[in-house]
Design brief:
Methylamine Dehydrogenase, Chain H; four-stranded antiparallel β-sheet; 1 helix
């Protein structure tokens, strides 16, 4: 029996509605960002923002950008970033290289020969060991790229699309949505495939943790622009959310958890699953997002750099599509030139735009 079942078909009139927009500022090449084509952003435990983009890897401290490169890189474009338990950045490019930032240098850890941009899929454990899967073999490497051991895991579908550690178990997800659960303590594994995934195949997916469950975003049919989110529970999938996009060239990129809400990034902006009518940055291709240590939301774009929302509750008033009518605080004086101040006093104004040159 399916639990927590929710299917919502997103139609043109539903998705592309007007919405009140939170106050934000933009970081782009006009105010120092090395490029406007950003694929992925993450934050480490020291507060640095790491940027994976078409120009390579950059570390941002709120004022300056430090580039990390290696003369042996076969490509600069980087879309996969991960912080390990020692707060070091790991990344991979589109041509089979996995590398790590060590101090002030970028060290190439492994080189895989591949023409498939999705390979190698890799994941890190708590000991900073590297795990990959290829041709029915799960391989464990140490942090320097030396092979430790390998395990034969034969699956009817060999093409892996995601790996994820969850509660001490390594989940291997394959193109036909079959799953292998590998216990890293006992070294035992088991196969399962939910009947909710029968007949489903996908070329790409996002697998994340949200509120103590795994959620899986898959592309069902590219020609028909259909996507689905599954909620994984024990050895079963539940259909959680269905997307049917009205425009031919629209795409869903990924899902993200801020701990409270589940978000979707797409070629037409970003929105919460709980409120799909309210689309932020609805003309932007939002590739990834993060919630930083100060509670600010960051969004990367494939064409416009970065957007930062300091406080999600503070919205921009739009008289053309809102029933809200502002009342002056003082006689004859509008409230902050049309900006609501519902929760502005929760945070010092000096922390709002800590990025030099950022455009509000």
């Amino acid at each position: 029996m399916m639990k927590h079942f929710l299917v919502v078909i997103l139609l043109l009139s539903f998705l592309y509605s007007f919405a009140q927009h939170p106050v934000y500022y933009q970081i782009s090449n006009e105010n120092g960002l090395p490029t406007n084509e950003v694929y992925k952003i993450v934050q480490d435990g020291f507060g640095y923002i790491w940027i994976g983009c078409d120009a390579g890897i950059y570390r941002y401290d709120g004022f300056t950008y430090k580039q990390y490169s290696n003369s042996k890189q076969n490509a600069r474009s980087t879309s996969f970033l991960q912080i390990d338990s020692k707060q070091r950045l790991w990344a991979k490019n589109f041509f089979g290289q996995i590398y790590r930032v060590d101090g002030d240098s970028l060290k190439i850890i492994k080189q895989f020969e591949t023409a498939n941009p999705s390979y190698p899929q890799f994941v890190l454990d708590e000991k900073c060991n590297l795990w990959t899967y290829n041709k029915n073999r799960l391989i464990e490497y140490n942090e320097n790229g030396d092979s430790l051991t390998s395990y034969d895991i034969i699956n009817p579908c060999e093409e892996i699309i995601a790996l994820k550690f969850f509660h001490g178990t390594l989940y291997l997800l394959f193109r036909d949505l079959s799953i292998v659960k590998f216990d890293i303590r006992t070294k035992q594994h088991e196969h399962f495939k939910s009947n909710q995934a029968d007949g489903v195949t996908t070329q790409s997916c996002t697998l994340i943790e949200h509120q103590n469950h795994l959620y899986l975003l898959v592309e069902l049919e590219r020609l028909e622009n259909k996507y689905r989110i599954y909620k994984m529970d024990e050895n079963n999938f539940d259909k959680f959310y269905d997307f049917e996009l009205p425009k031919k060239n629209d795409r869903i990129y990924s899902i993200f958890s801020d701990g409270k809400d589940l978000w979707t990034t797409s070629s037409f902006g970003v929105f919460k699953i709980s409120n799909p009518k309210n689309i932020y940055f609805n003309s932007e291709k939002i590739s990834s997002m993060l919630l930083d240590q100060e509670g600010e939301f960051w969004f990367s774009s494939l064409q416009s750099g970065l957007f930062v929302i300091p406080q999600i509750e503070v919205i921009k008033y739009n008289s053309a599509n809102s029933t809200l009518r502002l009342k002056p605080i003082f006689s004859g004086t509008p409230c902050l030139d049309g900006w609501t101040v519902a929760s502005m006093l929760k945070r010092p104004a000096s922390t709002w735009s800590r990025t030099t040159g950022a455009a509000m």
